[in-house]
Design goal:
It is found in: Cell membrane. The chain is an all-alpha fold. It is built from ten helices and no strands.
């Protein structure tokens, strides 16, 4: 890896986890579309997975008393199936098509966030946990981006903000553990990955610290618009990279 590639790698990790520190989600959706320009998708996704475990473990532990266990138990079975399917696809399908799918997914989530109105969110039944868990598991394993799917489900199930934040953090943490197992079984966890992760870890922590500081200073509308701009640029970049392979 060249010096410029190292700079892109460490800058992407710092930026992605600064976003996570500000918003509580979005790290993979920011980092992966950037990293695929210098790393294979099947390397970039497990790398972000290892960073996610570090980023979410403290949040999940601190807020565990607010976790709604019933929602976790509803989502986990289909989530596990989705993770296994996604990991299998990631290890076997040509990355160009997956990058195009990643770009389309990121752009779709950005457009949804831009046009969505808070008042439009209506409660839904627990039966939606099956497709939500399955889709979230597949996208988590393929791109590290299952968080928006879980968010769409839990936001309509848990009106209490503390319960919602705690449960989504616990779910993402458990998803990361499940993906680790699936990636190990499918051969996506290799020794160079851990070496790169150790090199990136200080920048992940730096981004988390910077994001937590900015969260108190940047108005939420400005943070939201910045995130949408980053996601849209990353999505377009991922589609371009996929078409060029």
């Amino acid at each position: 890896m060249s010096a410029s590639d190292h700079f892109i790698l460490l800058s992407a990790i710092t930026l992605a986890y600064a976003v996570f520190g500000m918003t509580g989600f979005g790290a993979a959706m920011v980092a992966v579309p950037i990293l695929v320009h210098i790393l294979p998708l099947e390397f970039a996704v497990p790398l972000i997975l290892l960073m996610d475990i570090v980023a979410t473990v403290s949040v999940a532990l601190k807020s565990r008393r607010h976790v709604v266990l019933a929602e976790l138990l509803r989502l986990l079975p289909s989530l596990l199936v989705g993770v296994l399917l996604g990991a299998t696809i990631l290890s076997r399908i040509k990355s160009g098509w997956l990058l195009i799918a990643l770009g389309v997914f990121v752009l779709a989530m950005s457009a949804r966030s831009f046009f969505m109105r808070r008042a439009a969110a209506q409660p839904i039944g627990w039966q939606w946990s099956v497709p939500a868990g399955m889709a979230g598991g597949i996208f988590s394993a393929l791109f590290g981006t299952g968080g928006p799917v879980y968010t769409m489900y839990l936001a309509r199930r848990l009106p209490d903000l503390e319960a919602f934040r705690a449960t989504i953090a616990a779910l993402i943490f458990l998803s990361a553990i499940a993906r680790s197992g699936a990636f190990a079984v499918t051969g996506l966890l290799q020794e160079p990955l851990f070496t790169t992760a150790l090199r990136c870890l200080p920048f992940c922590l730096l981004g988390l610290f910077a994001g937590s500081m900015l969260r108190r200073r940047v108005p939420p509308p400005m943070a939201r618009n910045l995130l949408l701009a980053l996601l849209s640029a990353g999505g377009l970049g991922a589609i371009y990279r996929g078409l060029s392979l």
